[in-house]
C-alpha cells in the first residue's frame, strides 16, 4: 500500500484548525467585558430575557488525577476555555453559574473553584496546582475536565516554550511529550493566524484522547524577518516557528500512528502567514509531478484548512504537492470542497533524501478575515479571429414561378471576419476588512477551455454545467441554496457586473448586479436566417406575419440587455447553525421573474445536521402575437399584441443527515410546483415532489489487510406531481470495496418504475392511452486502479432494462424510431400524406404523434492516464451510450465520445495543453490547443487555437451527407490580464 503520511498530516492539521475556535485564547477581562456589553445592549433594546442553563458540578478522583464533571439541563454550546495567571477558566454562554460550589471546593490538581455570572454567561475559575494541565472533553450537556500532572512540563502560567526538535525518519511512533507545551495566551491581533489552534480534546472518529499539548491553543509567533520561500527549510527563522507534529492517520487507518512522520511549522509577520512542511518518506515512493493548478491530488500532498473567521462554518482549503504546486479552494460546514476559487500565494517544494519539504507564504490580503484592506485592478485584453461556415447562396424567393422548381443545394462556404479586440477591466476593493466589492466592466467571460463533450441524446431535462469564470467563483458558496436559485452561468455576457460579498461578525452578505447583453444579442447569422425564412415563405399572409415579427425584434429586442440582481443574507446561529434569506430578479423586455426564499441549517450534534428551504417565485411573461388589424377590404397589416400572464410558484426542501463512524442515514424531501420559475438559477424539473432515503454502513478500516474496507449503501426514492399522481419510484443498493494497492471496486443494482404523462411533453401521445409506464432494472460496476506512478485507469459498465426512449430523435443519423414515427415515414414514402385533390385531409398516421416507449440501454465509461515524466501527462477517455427500443427493435441512438487530453508542464506556471474530442453521434471533432502562462491568479497570458469539424457528417444547410472532414468554425485568440494589487498602509 502506498505510504499515507502526507494524507495523515493533512487530515490531522485540518482537525487542529477546524477545532481551534472552540478553544481560542483570551483574557478573562476581555471575555467578561464582551459578554457584559452584549447583555447590556440586549437590556437597553428591551429584549426579553432568555432562560439560562442550570448547571451542577461534581468532583471525583481517578488514577490520573481529579475529574470534574459539569452537567447542564440543556446542550452546552459555545463553551470557551483558557488559562491565565495560574487559573483555568471555563466560560459557558447563556448559563447560570451561581448555583455551583464557590470558594471552598478543592481537589488534587486545583486548590479553589470560583463561579459566578458575567452578563448572561457563567464563568468558572479553577486555581491550578503547579505542573497541572487540564484536559477537556465535551459531549452534548456534559463537560468533563481532568486535572492531571504532566511529567517534565512547565506550569501553564509560564511563558513561551521553544519548539521541539525536528523528528527523524527513524522515529518508531509519535510521542506525546515531543510536541511543544501550552504557551501563555497572546492578545496580539495583528495577524489572522495570531492564535491558531492545535486541536481539541479528542481526535475525530473514535474519540481517542489526544495529548494535553494538542488539547489547548498554540500561539503562532511573529517572525523577526521573513524566510525565503525556496523549499529548503534551512533558515534560522524557522526555529522560532510553532511546531505541529505527531499526527494521526485517519484514512485508511482510524486514528492510528502514521506510517511516516510529518512536521508542520507556522509563523507570521506584518503582511504574510508562513507555513512549512517536512514530510518523511522513502524518496523512491514519493509521487511528485508538475501538474496544473488544483490537479495535484494524484500526487503526494500536504495542506491545511484555515478557518479565518473562527466560526467552523467555512475555511480555506490549501494544499501543495512536493514541488509546491498549489490547490486551493473553499470548504464549507457541510463538508463540501470547491476548488474553483484561486488565491494569490507563493509556494516552493523540493525532494530530499528522506522525503520532501514545502515552504509557503500566504499574504494576509489574499484572505478574508477580521483585519486588513486590499484593492486590486485586473485590466484584460483579448484579441481574436473567428472563422465560421455560412450559406453560399442567397435565398430563393418564393412565388408563383417557384412551384415545382427544386431548390438549389447550398453547400455553404467558410468566411474569416476581421480580427476583433476586446478590452475589459475587473476591480476589487475592500470596503471594510471583511466586505469586498468586485466590479467588472466589459469583461471577456469566454472560457479558455470549453465545456466537456457530453451525451445529450434522449435528455428530458436540462444538463448542468459548472461555473468556471473567476469573477463569479469567489464567494459563490455564499449564494449556494439547495434549490439552486442562483447559478451565475445564467448571466451569459454582462456588459458590467458588480458583486458585494463578505462577512461581519455573525452576518454574511452577498449582492450581485449585472447587465446581461446575451438575451438581446441576435448574431449576424441568426438575423440572416430569420430574413431568409421570410423571403422563402410561400404563403403571402404568413410572410407578412413573419416580417412584422422581425421588425418587432429589431425595434424592441435587438441590443437590449437583461437586468439581473441577486441578494443573499445569512445569520450564524449557535455554534455551527445558520438562518438566511435570499432573492433574485431577472428582467428582459416583457419578462419579469422574481424569487424570494429563506433557509436554515442546524447542527444538532457533532454528527447530525438538519436543513430546510422555502422559495416563492413570480413570473410576468408576455407572449408576442401578430394579428391583422386592417379594416375590411384594406391590405393586411399585422400589429403586435401582447398576451401577458402572471404565474406564482413554490419550492421547498428539507433534509436530515446523520453521519456516524460506521453508519449514516440521510433523508430528504423536495418539490417544485408547475409554475415555479427561477431564471437566475438552474431548475431541472418542475411540477414534481421527491422523497429520498439513504442509509450506509462501512466496516472498520484495516490498512494492512488485502481488503481494507467494505461499504454497503441502500437508497430509495419516490416522485409524484402536485396533483398526487405517481411519477415513479426506485430502490437500489451499492457495494464498495477498497483493496490494497489503491484498488477500488463498486457494484450496484436498482429497480423501479417510471410513469409519463402527455401533458408533460406539451401535447398528445399516439393512441388512446395518454400515459406510458415502464418498470426498470439496472446493474453496473466500477473498477479503479492505480498501477504505478505512470499508469492508472478506471472503467464503468452498466445496463438498464426498461429505460424510456422519449421519442425525441437524435439527429439525421438516428431519426425517431417509435412505432408512430416509423408508420408516419412509411405513409409519407407511399404518398398517402400529400395530394393535390381539393379538400384533401391527410390520414391520422401522417401526424406521427409523440410515442415514448421502453427499451434497453448499454453504457460504458473508461479512462486511462499515462504520465511518463513529471511534466508530461496524457489521458484518454471513452464514453458510450446506446438505447434500443423494445417495440420496434430499432436503435434510438448510439453515441461514442472519445477525448484525448495531453499536458506538458514546462514549469509550474508555463504549460502547453491539447485536447481533441470526437463524438460519433454528432460526427463532430473538436480540437483545442492552448499555451498558458499563469504566475498567479489575475495575471495570465493565453494563446489558443480551437477547431470545429464534421467527419462524415451532414451538411447543416442542405442535409446531405458529406464524406471526409468539413470545417464548421475555428478561432485563434490571445488573452492577457495583469493583476495590479495594493493594500492600505503599504
List keywords for this structure.
mainly beta, single chain, 986 residues, 6 helices, globular, 46 strands, five-stranded mixed sheet
Give a verbal description of the structure:
8% of the residues lie in helices and 47% in strands. The two termini are 50 Å apart. The protein has a 24-stranded antiparallel barrel. The chain has a 5-stranded mixed beta sheet with strand order 5-1-2-9-8, with no helix packed on it. The chain is mainly β and 986 residues long. Helix 4 runs antiparallel to helix 5. The protein contains 6 helices and 46 strands. The longest helix has 18 residues, at 540-557.
Helix and strand topology:
Layout: H1 5-19, H2 28-44, E1 53-61, E2 65-72, E3 80-84, E4 87-92, E5 95-96, E6 110-118, E7 121-128, E8 132-139, E9 142-149, E10 195-196, E11 218-219, E12 242-244, E13 262-268, E14 272-280, E15 302-306, E16 314-320, E17 326-332, E18 337-338, E19 346-352, E20 355-363, E21 374-390, E22 413-415, E23 420-430, E24 435-441, H3 470-473, E25 494-504, E26 507-516, H4 524-535, H5 540-557, E27 562-573, E28 577-588, E29 591-605, E30 608-628, E31 638-659, E32 663-672, E33 688-698, E34 707-720, E35 726-739, E36 743-757, E37 771-786, E38 791-805, H6 819-829, E39 853-866, E40 872-885, E41 891-905, E42 910-919, E43 924-936, E44 939-954, E45 961-977, E46 980-983
Parallel strand pairs: 1-5
Antiparallel strand pairs: 1-2, 2-9, 3-4, 4-7, 6-7, 8-9, 10-11, 12-13, 13-14, 14-20, 15-16, 16-17, 17-18, 19-20, 21-22, 21-23, 21-45, 21-46, 23-24, 24-25, 25-26, 26-27, 27-28, 28-29, 29-30, 30-31, 31-32, 32-33, 33-34, 34-35, 35-36, 36-37, 37-38, 38-39, 39-40, 40-41, 41-42, 42-43, 43-44, 44-45
